[in-house]
Write a structure and sequence with these properties.
heterodimer, A: 286 residues, mainly alpha, 11 helices, B: Rossmann fold, 8-stranded mixed β-sheet, 4-stranded antiparallel β-sheet, 12 strands
Chain lengths: 286, 324
């Protein structure tokens, strides 16, 4: 159900290019992750160092991607921005996946009123417009790395819960689960050893797609001024601030926007590619 | 092995009804009476073949016995002790003594676990022996069912259907159970492999003294392995008795119909009996009286009004029919 919806919405690459998608996605994502990890070594300038003579300069050997309105080095700020975006995205995706998986497993396996309760709870979360929910949570918690991540968890755990619930429902009827029950295995043992390992494929796919989504959300929050406050070099804020000068000096916005776009594209390609590899139901369709 | 009187397992009036719910309020509007009062006994080392056509409730009976389906009513006695009333600890012990082998050898093994892990699970769950000795037991069992010790590290997809069924049998045997419910254990296999698995089951039975409840729709297979046979029709046992008695002289019209439907090379096996209707009544709205009367050529007015009880006859069989 959730699968077909996703499939309908998402642009599908021709079959021949599927594995190429995985490779390109993996290449882009790992490059971004490496840039973020080694940012202190790769940064050419101090983040706050202003060079007022060279404001809005284009790319040069001195400033690889040019400078912003204060003459700060965009390349250095960009890779530090990647750190912020990725940290928030990884925390958000990990927590969402854990919470959603637990809810999905319990809901799908035990069924009955537990399922009813947990799924109606999920519906309540899904019922809110996600942007409003995220903004409300950040407004209550205040800005900060963990608070932004927490706000993203609030809107993204439901997807894991639903997908894991549906895989649990079908796996529960498998004979090997029945066999474990007949042996007298406890529900926890069955969930952790029989059902969870067989649900990891869809969870991995969702998580890699979720990283892209989380980065978009984080950028959107920063763009709106609800993310980490300046002088944190977030991509969203750079993009938003760049729009003030976009008529004369579009460079700042273009670079920030491109960073967001390429990163999200990378994680989405990775996720799509992983789905084709991990989910046999999608493999043969062209 | 013959029935020696002391029943290891006794099932009395077992019923499994699945409610049919309809409407917004999910009101119960009826029930599928999949198993509707089944009773039998199983002696130590004995094999009881449970036969009947699809949907007669034979598999449901097996699943209810091993606790995978909650029975609606009925009692199960293990060596004279009522399992349901004996408490949690006793219920867990009972589970240990009663294991199941499934029909589908492909879905019955977790694709992500090595054979060693799959076979260790029963020992881990019931905390049998010390952890270091468990692997040795696993290896011994793998060799016992005719696989190689090094195959313990393989994954299920590396095996054929017959080999997987051997693993399924090995898993059921790990806890040294008294009874194994075999739910159509060979019907998903090729005929040549069927014989191997049946011989394995027969060997294990005589070696370990384990009793089998052998559920199958394949009369040839049942004739090969069972000591006694129980024939089910629409959730009830209609005829039961020693294998040779049932197969050589079936008395219930339904048993006769079943045997007649097996293509036989032996001309003495040909029965001159035809059912008047092929249509099987649904388990939600069974005919009054005898459930088989709608298909029975011998049906009388009595069959429609009163249900024939399963009553013992002089030749060791029990029969539920007014007219035979």
């Amino acid at each position: 159900m959730a699968d077909t919806q996703l499939r309908a919405r998402r642009f599908r690459l021709p079959k021949r290019l599927r594995n190429a998608a995985l490779l390109i996605g993996a290449a882009i994502s790992s490059t971004i992750i490496l840039l973020a990890i080694f940012a202190p070594f790769l940064a050419t300038h101090d983040l706050a160092a202003m060079d007022m003579v060279n404001r809005f300069s284009g790319p040069s050997f001195e400033h690889l991607l040019g400078t912003d309105n204060f003459g700060r080095d965009i390349w250095s700020r960009l890779i530090y921005g990647a750190r912020i975006s990725l940290t928030i995205a990884i925390i958000a995706v990990t927590c969402s996946a854990i919470i959603g998986t637990i809810v999905g497993l319990v809901s799908g396996y035990f069924g009955g009123w537990i399922d009813l309760l947990l799924m109606r709870l999920t519906d309540i979360f899904l019922g809110f417009p996600p942007l409003l929910l995220v903004l409300a949570v950040v407004a209550v918690l205040g800005p900060g790395l963990f608070n932004v991540a927490a706000s993203l968890v609030v809107v993204s755990w439901t997807e894991y819960a639903r997908v894991v619930r549906s895989t649990t429902l079908s796996l529960r009827e498998q004979n090997y689960v029945q066999a474990a029950r007949a042996l007298g295995a406890s529900p926890w043992r069955i969930l952790l050893r029989e059902i969870l390992p067989n649900s990891l494929g869809p969870i991995t796919v969702l998580a890699s797609l979720g990283l892209g989504t989380a980065i978009v959300w984080e950028s959107a929050l920063s763009f709106l001024g609800f993310g980490l406050p300046p002088p944190a070099p977030t991509w969203g804020w750079s993009l938003s601030y760049g729009t003030r000068f976009i008529r004369d000096e579009p460079w700042l916005s273009v670079v920030s926007g491109a960073a967001i776009m390429i990163t999200v594209l990378g994680f989405n390609l990775l996720g799509d590619g992983l789905r084709d590899v991990l989910d046999p139901r999608h493999k043969t369709r062209g | 092995m013959q029935h020696d009187g002391s029943a290891l397992l006794q099932v009395r009036d077992l019923k499994v009804h699945f409610p049919i719910r309809q409407g917004v309020l999910q009101r119960q509007v009826g029930a599928v009476r999949a198993v509707d009062g089944v009773g039998f006994e199983l002696a130590r080392g004995e094999t009881l073949g449970l036969v009947g056509e699809s949907g007669c409730g034979k598999s449901t009976t097996g699943l209810a016995l091993v606790g995978l389906i909650e029975p609606t009513a009925g009692q199960v006695f293990c060596e004279g002790v009522d399992v349901a009333r004996a408490g949690r600890a006793a219920a867990l012990r009972f589970r240990r003594r009663l294991q199941i082998v499934f029909q589908d050898p492909f879905s019955s093994l977790n694709p992500r676990q090595r054979i060693r892990t799959i076979l260790r699970a029963p020992l881990d769950i019931h905390d049998v022996g010390d952890p270091s000795s468990r692997d040795e037991r696993v290896i011994a069992m793998i060799e016992r069912v005719g696989l190689r010790a090094d195959q313990a590290e393989h994954f299920p997809h590396q095996f054929s259907g017959g080999q997987r069924q051997r693993i399924g049998i090995a898993r059921a045997l790990m806890l040294e159970p008294d009874v194994i419910v075999c739910d159509e254990p060979v019907s998903a296999l090729d005929v040549s492999v069927q014989a191997q698995i049946l011989n394995l089951l027969a060997d294990l039975r005589s070696e370990l003294g384990v009793s089998l409840l052998f559920i199958s729709h394949d009369l040839g297979v049942v004739e090969h392995i069972a000591d006694r046979v129980a024939v089910m029709y629409l959730g009830k046992i209609v005829e039961t008795g020693p294998r040779d008695t049932i197969f050589s002289s079936p008395r219930h019209p339904y048993t006769e119909l079943l045997l007649n439907s097996v293509p036989s090379l032996d001309p003495r096996r040909r029965h001159k009996f035809q059912a008047s209707s092929i249509e099987v009544p649904s388990a939600t709205s069974k005919p009054s009286g005898c459930a088989f009367r709608t298909r029975c050529p011998l049906a009388t007015a009595e069959c429609a009004s009163t249900e024939p009880p399963l009553s013992p006859r002089d030749d060791g069989r029990a029969l539920a029919c007014h007219n035979r």
